[in-house]
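Re: that chain you flagged

S.,

Sorry for the slow reply, it's been a week of failed gels. I finally had a moment to sit down with the sequence you sent. For the record, here it is as I used it:
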Amino acid sequence: MTLSSIIIQKIKQHGQISFCDFMEMALYYPGLGYYTSEGDKIGKKGDYYTSPNLTPAFGEMIGRQLEEMWHILGEKEFTVVEMGAGLGFLSMDVLDYLKRNQELFHDLDYCIIEKSPAMRKEQRERLGDKVRWCNSIQELSGMAGCVFSNELADAFPVHQVVMGEQLMEVFVDYKNGFQEVLKPAPAELKDYFAELGVVLPPGYRTEINLDAVKWIQEIGSSLKKGFVITIDYGYPSSELYQEYRSSGTLMCYNKHTLNENPYEHIGEQDITSHVNFSALEHGGRKKGLELCGFTDQAHFLLGLGIEEYLKKLQESEPENYLKKMLQVKTLLMEMGETFKILIQKKGVKCVELSGLKFQSRWII
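Prediction finished late last night. Pasting the structure tokens below so you have them in one place:
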């Protein structure tokens, strides 16, 4: 039975489902969802690229930031939690850098929290015994260190809403094809905008990622002392709800082709939406996470010494330099403004992190 048939059957038996429930099934239904099924998702044979797929330089820069955080926290036992590690390339590159510091590496507890069985399998094959896997951040309650993620929150199921005479939520029905139906939005969706001070104009359609808020709050509750690094594409509220985004930011990726129809290729295409970093900052603050800074990927990498990295590369590998330099250029130029980095802290005095050294135009 196809995943599409399973969703249709659910609608016929139980009635219309929220778009959020539809997206949850499309991405995470056991064995058939996009992230829970076998098959290439990332890279040339997959549907999209991520920064770690392009060059190990990205992982080294993350490693440098983690090493600095270890120094700030007193060079003691240091827990690094990577949430949603994909194929494990970023973990591998981060660990390759961190093992250069034997004292840190000795104190390092590297944990991966991964929802996808297929991805866990890939990670186990690629990574050594320095890594352990956990099912949730609550298992690490009281930790000191850093929780980081790269392109995770954008793949959480979202509620879709449209502003009519009142806020309406999008539901999914099936009658000779998938159809959308609008129903009055519940209080929690209205409260989301009220807390952020956002007023949508009539006819405006957008997404609400309640799971992302819950996720950052779970991290805030579990982290005793340390940092949270969230890397993803998205904007603060002031930019996310501009008039020219009145159709929302929902996107689908299938074989490196972009489309805006989540009702085709169900279980075979990625469905994402832009992250609201203001919501992550606001939600985290409720659980003790303070804002360290907010920047874009280009400024983050420059602050951590990506230019120095390239200079050393030119000296050590002149024959490979051009190819590797172009890969890094993609991180800085093509992806540098699109991807943002939010860094939050808890139980740490005011510090200046290298990744936040150079100020970008983004304000949260």
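What I noticed first: Residues 3-157+208-236+264-356 form a domain with the Rossmann fold fold (CATH 3.40.50.12710).

Talk soon,
D.
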